[in-house]
User: Fold these one by one.
Assistant:
Number 1:
Amino acid sequence: MLRCHTPPQCRPAVGAGAVLMRRREMAARCCAAPRVSGVEAASAVEGGGGEKRTTTMAERLRMGSLLEDGLSYKESFIVRCYEVGINKTATVETIANLLQEVGCNHAQSVGFSTDGFATTTTMRKLGLIWVTNRMHIEIYKYPAWGDVVEIETWCQEDGRIGTRRDWILKDLANGEVIGRATSKWVMMNQNTRRLQRVSDEVRDEVFVHCPKTPRLAFPEENNGSLKKIPILTDPAQHSRLGLVPRRADLDMNQHVNNVTYIGWVLESIPQDIIDSHELQTITLDYRRECQHDDIVDSLTYIEEGEEKSSNGSAFAAPHPEEQRQFLHCLRFAGNGDEINRGRTVWRKLAR
Amino acid sequence: MENGRLLSLVVLNFEQFWTQSRSSVMAGSLAASAFFHGPGSSPAASARSSKNTTGELPENLSVRGIVAKPNPPPGAMQVKAQAQALPKVNGTKVNLKTTSPDKEDIIPYSAPKTFYNQLPDWSMLLAAVTTIFLAAEKQWTLLDWKPKKPDMLVDTFGFGRIIQDGLVFRQNFLIRSYEIGADRTASIETLMNHLQETALNHVKTAGLLGDGFGATPEMSKRNLIWVVSKIQLLVERYPSWGDMVQVDTWVAAAGKNGMRRDWHVRDYNSGQTILRATSVWVMMNKNTRRLSKMPDEVRAEIGPYFNGHSAITEEQGEKLPKPGSTFDGTDTKQFTRKGLTPKWSDLDVNQHVNNVKYIGWILESAPISILEKHELASMTLDYRKECGRDSVLQSLTTVSGECVDGNTESSIQCDHLLQLESGADIVKAHTEWRPKRAQGEGNMGFFPAETRQL
């Protein structure tokens, strides 16, 4: 299981009053400072006493915010030039980074701890942390440099031991949905590394800010996010061996960042697919974590057969013949233990 | 519902407030700060963007949606919940007395200038105002938004704009969570990425973007592209997650055939310098890969933008050791990291390795003992050769002897070499490191006091 380094979940450090409390403080400040224009007001209020932690310039300037019902969070991002890949559109790693960012900001906006472990008070007492289990991203239209992407995210319970975080990505210019994503998380004891059920105590802390009725980014049946990824034993058709984590791939806890795995999975895709196709879907199952001194092999297997046409999602590429599907495995070069399993679906680029 | 009634009260009394203001623009900005001041609400972003424009509310932001939201009042008051507020602030008087004839009934009721004594509960007012700006936020995000032309809007999303009579380009960046390194401050790669982004946006906003990254139209016609030959950076402080940085960039001539691009990065909030940098660029034919003189047509395109100001003065530049300078007298230690290969995400549109990536590789071989206790104070890079997808590189770092034992008091100097395993030099660099500042300084209190790994 992978440690939850980065996207903290939606959980309040205090009870349900937290959100309303912060909103009141917001309101109080803005009523108190009508005279000056926005920037000066911000600094004046900041300097004029009041709690040090609650509203910083960054929070006021942050583009995202909770929606009215407080159950989800929305933020917009502009795609920067260095986030764009060889197709002149944002890379899937950029998208994954933005999903992570908005997840973090969601947590922060409802007042959660953002130390990288994203725990509630009770969880810390019991030594529990969240770890990612699965990540599934579908992108229908990649944004280009200068485009603004609006991402909405929320989280909710998922069975007895888990939580899930969902995202919807839209092009802010025209409101079109350009992508969807979902991720599953489980709770684990930090010391024993064993999975733990979400106790009622923790549930109350964690899920008060989540939709009570299930809201799924992938509501359709048999959608790609639910498909199992089998163990791969046959020799891989393509591979890239000897991948090494860089310093920049490590998160605050010295483990390889979730997004880096996506890059490694793509490393063993053959050049002709990269040149002619675009990644539509990626599903990753996280099994083990990886550190700076590990060496990783990336293996790719072609996935044939009925899978190709069973993808009944309304958003999928319309012609299965133009799709290619692969299964992936990332493993330690030394002992062959699996780090991740994955599946990718590619659609032909309209060049 | 209480909410609805109070909402209407608030709106009505702000109407009084607006119609009494001296100018509609002022009203707009005051209204903006009063109403919409809150986390992430976008009209606050207009305040963020520049000091010389006040509250530019979008034209068609209608407050109608705000007041319509709560349930109509139970009938105790003859107040219609659909107040048609039209804050059309740009040049027109802001006036709530618009189309709805029912409004006439409302006006006499709102005669009392202060409404505080009307409120049954102060906290309800706060909740009401909260609802207003939350709904306004929602309105804002649903607006017909066309961000395609960056000059249309103030720097809401960080498009950047040209200032100082066209000579300087300025853009702001919010440091995102994935841009910070293991020590919770922005990595040097993040800062360099911002420099690259502003350089491109400068060229684009100045209308000089030809085909390909940064090449002007005259250059594209001749298959010429810019390649960086040297970069010098002086870093004074590192921003943290959530900080906003302001990057200024400008160009100047560098000899007869080169161009210099300088940057000055400041913390947006405090104005303190984060880093200063200068770079030298030369032209290369993208097909022959040979360096080229600057054609007169290109000089004519970019000459008008040349600004003689220097981010790093000559003296400061001279003081920075050149890459490859040897350490005399002291022992040195060498560290190597091999087997570095570009990933797909390291490549730009031309399938060449982005020059910011080299910095990460250079630092790969820096010993962890330096990175843990020190921060990069300055760096000088000499770019020698480009590399592509199939290159395999190795990174060598030579550290001046006295510092290797983890002495945290002094500054450290390192010499770096990034080369193909087959031998050719890609980049030579020299870095200076200083002991890290104490944690807790300027990190906005987001992280708990105990650090987990450092």
Note: The first strand of chain B starts at residue 161 and ends at 163.
Number 2:
Amino acid sequence: MAHWSTFEKESERETKRLIRCLSGIEDEEDQNFQLALKFAWSNFKIYEKLVVHSDLQKAESWMRLTEEFLNSPLPNTDGEKTDAHYSILSLLLCLSGSPSNTDFTERPRLKEAEPEDKFDWAKYLMEGEDADMGPYPDTPEWSEEESEDDDSQQPISREDSGIQLDRTPQEDQDNANKTVPVTWTVGEPDARAWLEQHLVTPYWASHAPRFPHSLHLHSNLLNVWDQHLYNTDPLYLPEEKAFVTETQVIRETLWLLSGVNKHFIFQQHDGKVSVRSNVVVTHLTGNCLRSVLEHIAVYGQAVFRLQRFIDEVTGHSSEPGPPGTASTYGSKKASEPPFRTYQAFVWALNKYFTSFKEELTMIERELICNDETVTLSAVLERLSPHLAQIKVLHRVFCTGVAEVPPATPNVVRASHLLNTLYKAIIEYDSVGEASEQAVALLFSLWTETVRPYLEIVDEWIVHGHLFDPAREFIIQRNKDVPVNHRDFWYATYTLYSVSETVDSEEKLNDAASGSSGGDQASGGRQLTMVSFLKPVLKQIIMAGKSMQLLKNLDCKEAEKSQRASRDAERKSLHTLFLESVQSRLCSREESPADGMTEQQSTRRSLIKMQSIMARHLEIDDVHDPLLAINFARLYLEQSDFQECFSGGDFSVDRSSQSVTCQTFELTLRSCLYPHIERRYIECCGNLMKTLTKDYRLLEYLQAMRNYFLLEAGDTMYDFYTAIFDKVQEKESWQQPSFLNVQLQEAVGQRYPEDSSRLSVFLEPIDASRKKQPVNNLEVLTLSYKVPWPVDIVISSECQKIYNQVFLLLLQIKWAKYSLDTLRFSGTNVTKKLEGATAEEVKVKERVNQQIHRMCLLRVKLMHFVNSLHNYIMTRILHSTGLEFQHQVQEAKDLDQLIKIHYRYLATIHDRCLLREKVNFYDGAVTTSLTADAISCKEGSCLIESIDKMESDFKNCHMFLVTILNKAVCRGSFPHLESLALSLMAGFEQC
Amino acid sequence: MASAANANLNAVRETMDVLLEISRLLNTGLDMESLSICVRLCEQGINPEALSAVIKELRKASESLKVQTQPPLKLISSHCIYM
């Protein structure tokens, strides 16, 4: 403060003194004192500033105004120049923004002695006395020219309620040059004035003439309330108001709900409906009216959004919205196929709105008739069930359609929508009777929306053709797999399932796991595909695939033509479904009323169903919407439905509605699933019949058993003995030509048709397995060429397993063969050595002894091999084969057949001890034994070797017996029992 | 009694008019409604400097609020299984 001039110091001192004098505050540190000081200074400064800026007028105003203000009373403070005055001024100063730079001219303030009284007391007092004022005394005169211009140039749009928003005459003039000439003209020059007088005053125009209304106190609540506010609150500001009548409000409400876009009372901005703020009626306070209208606006917005969705899907959006919002819901370019699920949904919505609009029109007509009093609250009361339904619809629409991101594929959209509906039904269903109507509405909506899906399913399981151009069905055909490919059964279709929890898009490919893809994937996470199809999904897939396969097989011509003729009168799945639901409803209603027995009721419902069917057969087009309309009405107007369909006069049981709805899933189970089930059985039955009859599936299975499992004993005997002979002769047998010739010869004699299919080739095996001579056989691979449709069942994987069993059998056969052909030359030796020396005799005896031991060992070995052979050939292959044949007869579909076949092979594989674990013991045993037998035969009859062989055999035998006994005791392998017993017997004799 | 109250009301109304003029002169940007609220607050003893700070802060905040955008929608994804 040191640099302050003496003048400033002096003036500060003086100011402080002044404040002290004026306020009486002695303490300079007092907050109020500081406040006053600050104000004084800034006041001086503002004044000085204004003077310096030579805004003398402003400066003068400032001085005068502050003076005046400080001397005026404040609302809640007594006295003048109080702290409050100063703090208010201080606040304004703090908020002030460059006052010197703004234009300011002081406005002359009216010094009114009394506030303007808007209430027309004269009229109030004269009420009932003035008779001849005319209906519209306030209507101003219209100049002739203006009205003429307006009349001829006012366009009326279809979407428009006829209300032009806030048009000033200036705008009208501008528009007049651009707009298309009129849809209607009224000939008389003052037609507009006439219309205004007789139809409606243009309440939408700003400063519209006030309409007359009763001056009774009740119809002037607004004025009374305003007056009250004005009198009690000095800060109350009366606003500009647009007066309307309740009738106008009702009509605009009706228009809003019927989907008209332009209104006066309700305004739309970017799809949001709001209430114009200054609309009032005379008999309600503004807030009251506003709260009611805002309630309506919410529904209006729901209607608007639904309507826009309908327009977009149907493709006639009359008003092109702003880019980005326009094509969000599947309104696509013309080239893209239509998205039928949305179309069906829209169709159902549209049907609902048609009936809703009928109701609205009826109300409006009553309003026009003027026969009875229509109030806004009465209208709302009357519409309340509809409004509740609109709320439900909008909710479903929001979650099912609007919240889906734009780039989502159709399959996700469709299943999401269906799921949303399904969930909503179940959700409302659980509330019980409170939401009966909502459930009814949603159910009718659902039955409509599900129609494309059912049609796709229908087309697929009846004609074998998955027709889904918009890719909306949860199952889609992989285009790159032809029908006559062997992978057809496994890799043709893709099942989409929607999961809302996982973010990224995933594709799981499990071609190897067969067609049970759904089960595979559901293990890891919760998948929510279209839930209503879930219980029958497998049947649908099976039926569809079977049908497609069947279509591509050469069916009998007669059957084809028969099918074609039947197809004409066939009903679609959707129709069948609707009919079942109807008949179910009928029987439901009737049973509690009549108290009949279960049997009677079913019979009666059957008769009724027949009559309904007959009625429907009369209709040429099965997809007649009339049916669906009736069906939808069935829920909404139960009594109406009864008249239409059942014709009887049953007492309406209220609970019957809820019964049907509460058991929604049950309804599906009894009305939809059986049809699919029936179709599935039919399709798969046909396929199985065709495969077994025309394609000799069973014969091929038998052939596999014949050759691979050696069931054709004599044929295969010819083949393998030829090989064994060669081995015996120590000749080379591993020549494809030799092997094939042998095979052809053997097979050609008895099964000439199979000889071309069978072939043998050699496959080198790894050196590690080539330990024993018996392993040499493992290079053999038998192959059987299976023709196309049958190779779905007998795949190359199956053949591999067959081949393994075949090789094992071959090895056993060979062991048996070598033991059988084993001859000991010892006997000859003894004969030759007759009459020799004692030593020779001694040697001979030793040799004989050895030979005897060898013979014993051979017999033991033979016993062992024979029991093994018996076990496998009879106990396993034969009995399992019988079981298999039995199961094949009972197989319902191809998938089941494939599974049965696989299971059969796996069982054989297991029981032939080829499974890795068991193989370890047993393979070693057999091979070592047979190898021993071979080496025996080679005549190296050394005692040590015999000893070794005996002990080896004993060990192996014992080992095997123990293992088998253990297994049998555990009871896990009952089939092993016989083998264990026979081996045990052989062991005890040792 | 009623007329006295009425007179008082009128006086207050005039005061407010004067105040509005001052407010306009100082270019505070307050309209009648906000001005009357401010008057009530000041009468209740609110510190005018604090009040002015609050008003400025609120104006700034509402400006920046208009610029903000909506958060994006959650995603729905799909899975496929070959059969």
Note: Chain B has one domain: 1-64.
